[in-house]
Amino acid sequence: VGVLGPWGCDPLLARALPDVASRLAVARLNRDAELTAGYWWDAVVLAEACGTPQAVAGLLSAERYASAIVGPLNPAACGAAGLLAAAWNKPLVSWACGGAAGAGTLVNPLPAPAAVLHAVLRYFRWAHVAVVAAPQDLWVDTGRELARELRARGLPVTVLATAGDEEEEAEKALRKVQRADGVRVVVMCMHSVLLGGREQKVLLEKAEDLGMTDGSLVFIPYDALTFALPYRRVPYPVLANNTKLRLAYDAVLTVTIDSPDASFRDALEEAKKAYEVPANLDPAEV
């Protein structure tokens, strides 16, 4: 199984330990006789290029390395990946790709993030949405795809903006939100500040400066929809040591995956013991 992602160009994703996580997953798989069915599973980590055109071109080499592919993470590469996987008759397992790509070989391991967001927004009757993305290709393309899917579900996405780690960029994006009519929700397509995301930190702090975290707007992190963000009895120093950010975070609604069978910390400790990961590794860095 090839595990495809931009491990070499995104510092936070690189700290996700894809090699360790892959080995942990196949070790569990190989211990389950009902799942192995006489096969022995193995995983290989494949690098996805940072830029979208290069990521699409790099998919061609994946056929040589794997019988199935987990990825890509960039939704803009999904169309090409789906067609190639169908031509190779290989499963493509991706939470970033919609149902149109891949014909019969695409497997969606999680509920589509756009569908989850739509359910939450419909429940609270929040219609008008703004999407603010980090400037890297991965997040820009994610923001575009999310806006397209929400619009297809009938929700008006009136703002689609980018914001880097400079205060001026964050303010420019937030001013667009302020000028838009009736925006209730800002979806942040960028790394969570709880995991070290610089762009989200700057964006939320600037929102606090502009008085946008007073309850008039709800800020939703997109990335937490795709993994189980630890939230039970987990201290986050980034909030404890930053009063402005802690105040701003009162306006953040986090929707994430529950993991009742085995907690995030349990899995991390198992991986550390099995694969000699440094014992002082901070769970917030994974």
TrEMBL record:
Signal peptide: none
Domain of life where this protein originates: Eukaryota
InterPro entries attached to this UniProt entry: ANF_lig-bd_rcpt, Peripla_BP_I
Residue ranges of domain Receptor ligand binding region in the record: 19-280
GO cellular component, one term: membrane
UniProt name for this protein: GUC2F cyclase
Gene from which the chain derives: Gucy2f_0
Protein's cellular compartments: Membrane
Keywords: Membrane, Transmembrane, Transmembrane helix
Entries under Pfam families matching the protein: ANF_receptor
Main subcellular location: membrane
Regions crossing the membrane: none
Organism of this sequence: Rhabdornis inornatus
